[in-house]
Amino acid sequence: MFILPGILGLVFLIFVRPFEFIEALQGIPMLYMAFGLAVFGYAVDVRLGFSDVRPVPQLVWSGIFFVWCVITGLVKAPGELAGEALRLTVALILFYVVAHGVRTFKMFEILASAVLVCSLFVCAVCVHQGLSERQCIALAPHEGRLSTGVADGRFCEEPEQCYGPQAEPGYSYRCEKAGLLGTSAIGDRVRYLGLLQDPNEVSLVVAAALPIAFAFYQRRKTSGRLVLLIVSLLLVALTVLFSKSRGGQLVFLTVIGVYFIKKYGWKGAMLGALGALPILAFGGRGGEEASESSLERLECWYAGVSMFRADPIFGVGLGQFTQHHFLTAHNSYVLAAGELGLVGTVVWVSIIWLSVKIPWVAMVDLENVPGADVARIWSVALLASMAGMAIGVFFLSFNYHYILWLFVGLSGSFFMAVKGHLPEWRVPFGWKDITAVTLGSLWVIVVIFLYTRGKI
User: Fold this and answer.
1) Where are the domains of the chain?
2) Tell me: the pLDDT tens digits for 63-117?
3) CB–CB of 229/214 below 8 Å?
């Protein structure tokens, strides 16, 4: 109960990032303040008996993951461990307070609604950006190539038009679509700010949030919720389209596919694919740019697997991938293998698998349980979201991303909500799961190595 203000504040700050575009808020550690408020609220809830410290299935594995990450950092790069460990600690605290503090379906739905609203806000900004005219984007000498820059109001078609008498001395320029809140596209691909400044990441996150709109409509089929669902579908689809993200397209297809399969069986997957053909046809990049991007990604994957081969136990250490390659891995499974070795990979994949398995087991176990409609609806929604995440992170370095751990926390929160009604319900995770995760992780690493070696 008392934890909600802190958690809702965290969701708002992580997604919307008001301190990125409101000058008066810059320099204020708002995220850390919200984290403190959430932790304090959780402590109050425990003290008053509104919550307790019973663990969710992912908790033990998250603890092991943290310890192993610290060990790899100590072994490989002790001088840089503090900063990397702090970032990971914040992500794990976010997971913990969401999973253990949100323990009823009422609280779960409040949190889910916040995630949906913030995601749609991001979508609205991205769609507006995608429909805007190109302007000259000025980059100060200290700003990197991927910076949002500042639109100076001059319309353009080519970057060369931005130089000349009106250009600021020492500044570089891009010709990109300029959007609200100081946002701008990159390579004609829409994006947001902060943690969602990458077009691929923004498309993954908003597509993973889409099932929340489906769930709210299924919970109560009113005209208002139908409008919300239609608007959500439209905004998310346009954002994925304008982001030109192939990974985002796959996440969108996965989310829609889960619902079609649940409704119509595996034949429904074909119907879902047909419905998504417009996004596949018009989304994504083509030509030389797409070929260069694919080759660059394969080089990153090969570099990550090479790091794993050099030290399959510890990898190169927490946060050290870019110290051994000029780009990040562009694949969470490769990043885990390259930085954390086999142990870290198995533990991280186990957390993701558990977060998928929780709603899957609930969907199966509660299929014919009277009065379990709410749990059934949210189990499908969460399964769609986590399945989309599991596929989407194959193309992104997302292992330590706050939003990934927020969704892992949502899975844990759902587990607690179901346990509140069915105390004997459990999600088994034993040696069969560990063996499957280990063999699956090794198989992915080997396949990626053989494939990339033949392409590079």
Assistant:
1) 4-131+192-455, 134-178
2) 999 999 999 999 998 988 998 999 999 999 999 999 999 989 999 999 999 999 9
3) yes
